[in-house]
Amino acid sequence: MIVRQFVVGFIANNNYLLIDEESKEAALIDCTDYISELGSVLKEYDAKLKYILLTHGHFDHIIGVPKTKREFGAKVYMHKDDKDLVDESDAFMLSVGMQPFEHPEIDKYIEEGEEIYLGKTKIDVIHLPGHTQGGVGYLVDGMMFSGDTVFLESIGRTDLPGGNYEQLVKTIKDKVFTLDGDTILYVGHGTNTTVEHEKKYNEFV
After folding, report:
1. pTM score, whole prediction
2. Domain with 13 in it: what CATH number?
3. Which domain holds residue 193?
4. Are 123 and 154 contacting, i.e. CB atoms less than 8 angstroms apart?
5. Average pLDDT by stretches of 10, the chain with 205 residues
6. Count of structural domains within the chain
């Protein structure tokens, strides 16, 4: 599995492109904004963008979805419990002095336990509520793309719509820390980490 990282947007979000080397099928995990180099990277690997997989519905992870979907024809997946978060986001954006954005068209609302395939490579969907109610992680080949659930020696904020601190801590303990210690955590902002490192050094959990 090829993984390419793009840091995009004014909050410096991490967006990840996964490419299955055999089938040349690709998935973009989160879409902060339109990624100008995405097309050239796909061409470099002779790959086709099959999915845009959203870790959650906060604006800074989804603004680029509509334009990217139109250009590449990818299917957009998001957990069902963040539907209302996106649908009702205009009022939140205005309340923080920002303009509403074009809402993404979701092709499928996913749930815990679903499997998504790039060729023969399986991506497992793990529900990670707490930062938002519909937060998910995508687990593939010893890597967890965990959005804003956990960061390097920190955790996602819970003072935004959909957040719940106690629920987030429980999610990290029950869903993240039970993974193999060498599982790489590809996070939504900042430096990537591992399960083992966070179990040892994350003082928030």
Report:
1. 0.96
2. 3.60.15.10
3. 2-201
4. no
5. 94 96 98 96 98 96 96 98 93 87 95 97 98 98 98 96 95 98 98 98 96
6. 1
